[in-house]
Amino acid sequence: MFGMLALLASGLSACTQQPGGVGGVQSPTTPGKVTVRYGPYTIPAATPTRMGMIQNSFALNVKRPCTNCYITSMQAGLITPDGANANVDRGLWLHHMVMMDSSKADLCGWPLGQRFFSSGNERTPVNAGFPYGYPQGGAPSWTLIYDLMNMNAQAKQVYITVEFGYAPMNTPGMRPITPMWLDVAGCISASSVPVGTRAGTKFTLRSTPFASPSAGKLIGIGGHIHDGGVNLVVKKNGQQICDSRATYGGKPEYIEGPGSLEMPGMPHLSEMSRCQGTREAPVTPVARGDSWVIEANYDMTESGPGGHMHMEGSTPHPIMGIAIGYLDVGADA
Question: Mind listing the pLDDT tens digit for each residue in 282-291?
Fold first, then answer.
């Protein structure tokens, strides 16, 4: 609870009220895609000992891609005002972002609404696959939490983007998905975990057990970790059902550029694998009361992916271990 209160305190002190409504289409009649832009946000300049950061700030009443629709896919991005991609090669990070729908209850007890989408700088796309989508009625309110980093000696202005796929609410055969949030720091915490004395070692962050509140099918799930993370394992009743693994430097934009005040030429986390199923062959059936645990494995040794752990003064930046799954609640398990 203290972690949640700290997050709320820090976030509300930097809270922004953004124009709400729809950034795409109202009551679409055909499937489609639309990119919604959030911002602009100005990230402070970095110094030789500290990255420029916007930490866990809240944007209230942000735009949705559609009304009376199903959201069928989501992928986050970061751009500069001219529309160019903003990534590590330009000294800019979408450190993490979370979107929540205040009209729905969160399975894990988060009090501000249902957390339905989260991304780090790896920007992993989420695609539920037919016949699944996240339903939207006429007037829910969305909140965005955003955490951005700048490794340049100058302040930088950026926009967060999310590309949404959507389908009309009356699409035949569609079924709603319900997001399930799992977090090594607990259901209602700030999610960040201090590295502390674990810097320079290999270690595992493990969540407390979470009990499924209802039965159904797990359609897909994937992990979010920070630099230094090797993988995130999802377990149901003690049995591994997903191994979400990290890739580093898989694309040129995930290599630090020459203007970086951190470590030019260093590859960073660029992808997290997902476990994806279908209605006929889900990742796993879910029974009411099933016990869920996630384990985030980190390697902060000098030769590991976290050997260059980002520093703020003399303290490594906190890390995370999160998984978001999507459930077909009530489906025959």
Answer: 999 999 999 9
